[in-house]
């Protein structure tokens, strides 16, 4: 591991909460696909399986920011444990209802309850921010966490699908629930690195989403999530049309691997200048990287194109977290980070459904038009909201160097 990453873990407790966060994040990539695999095996109803997976994702998008707002107010331990127990109970109900063939409405109620699962990525990033706020190490920490996210998305679906198909249908979601329980309770047992809560009287009223800068970031990431959701569905259909459906998992793993590589390299850099410029460039590069997908004719070309497209993801996500630091009051940092995940989740649900409709109507090749259009929308939103990103929240100006650059730019 390069020296900046070794130095990152010199802080007491950093290895422990990072490892706990990794385990607790695995369900993010395992639960949805695990539910699809389980339901399709038990009932053969792919429509029901997809609807339940979308219910889990949308419920998490609705509940996630509210749970994180409570975390900012009362602390991680007091909020995460009861929320996780609720989600685990709902997951157990879903597995039992699927096995015993209970009515569909029971399945949907349980799937919605799973949405109470907390955003462990935001919790871990909040701990890094408490340790390294205002230092270059925070950039490295966000880079490392972005790589961890991609590792989860590479291996999570493979593990979940493999267990449910080789062992028994409920195995994938069951292991995802176990990872969630171990990760959350291990993380919340580590009190020394837990960020200090901010009671309501210190926070003021309202949501972190009142921040104009955060509104731009979240809206842009709805479009970005649409890219991700569409690419997943279209790639499976593209591989299936060519008689190699199993290869889709390898091709999509290369998409995530490209992001991993870029995230590791980006974390080694000490970049100067306004992060909003890097962010807009990242969004632009993600959009441009979708254009070659419209021209792919075979799986090897698609694999290369997706690996290249993945290179823009992690740097953009890392820069986004830095911008949240500037545009959200410190007392609402966890909620602000969770809103990004919410935007992505909503986008993924939109992208999956729109891409499925296009594939049914015009084939997989035409389906790649969905992420291409979504990328253009993301760039348009980014350009229109760029000025808002140049105005941090009161008292949040980033590093001293960044603040000075803003002042010079303003004077000029």
Automatic annotation (TrEMBL):
The regions listed as transmembrane in this protein's record are 20-40, 46-67, 79-99, 105-126, 174-193, 214-238, 250-271, 278-295, 301-324, 336-359, 365-386
Q: Where found in the cell?
A: Cell membrane
Q: One cellular component GO annotation, for this chain's record? A: plasma membrane
Keywords in alphabetical order, please.
Answer: Membrane, Transmembrane, Transmembrane helix
* Major location (coarse): membrane
Does Membrane show up as a keyword for this record?
Answer: yes
InterPro entries the UniProt entry points to: MFS, MFS_dom, MFS_trans_sf
**Its Gene Ontology molecular function terms?**
transmembrane transporter activity
Name the membrane topology term.
Multi-pass membrane protein
Superkingdom of this protein's organism: Bacteria
Q: Where is the Major facilitator superfamily (MFS) profile domain?
A: 213-412
The protein's name: MFS transporter
State the organism named in the record.
Answer: Streptomyces griseoruber
Organism placement in taxonomy: Bacteria, Bacillati, Actinomycetota, Actinomycetes, Kitasatosporales
